[in-house]
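User: two proteins, same treatment. go.

Assistant:
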Amino acid sequence: MTVHDRWQVFRGESTEEKDLIFTVKRSSMIQLKTKLHVFLATNPKEDVCDFRVEGSWLERSCIIYSGESNTILAQMHKKHSVESVLLGKDKFMVTVYPNVDYAFVVALIAILDGINQGE
């Protein structure tokens, strides 16, 4: 148990350790901008994150990086349109770079949304 919030993603409906895919946790308890560390199940020590998510949910934008590098794997930002301004319907643009798992990116964005809905 850590003082950081933690989310675990499993295969299917399972919650068994053998079906763990990855774990997400906040990089620190107090954050002005969102910063999440993602650890694959094959990285149980969690010394160095496998991926990280940085962004501002207030601005509805984030970037997903490979580990502690500056290599961008995906980006999300709010798409401004007449419809979004007049009707209050937010639309988002997500760019996923080649050789990156789309489902993984969607899962991270869903976790980010869940974190920010809870606040």
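Protein 2:
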Amino acid sequence: MNFRSFDEFWPFYVTQHSKPATRRWHFVGTLLSIMLFTYSVFFNRWFLLAVPFAGYGCAWYSHFFVEGNLPTTFGHPLWSLVCDYKMFGLMLTGKMDREMKRLGKRPILQAL
């Protein structure tokens, strides 16, 4: 799928994260990656190597074993990263459920 803007991509991203467990795994992965990044900056730079494994590991697990789709990172890596942080912020502030309702929950099939 081709997207011309972030505003077009965001609704697609949300539909690819329709199950609450998928969003929770993303939240955990993002939180872990933030914590590891912070630790690496202040204490041990070697922990930078663990940042992508924590973030992507949790997220990809949720797509393959919970949601049953391919991670959007494969087709749109930068927009997916930005969307992940947007979703993290919405979940942190308790606004993600409202965003899911606003956009609808019907998953969009992904082209391989």
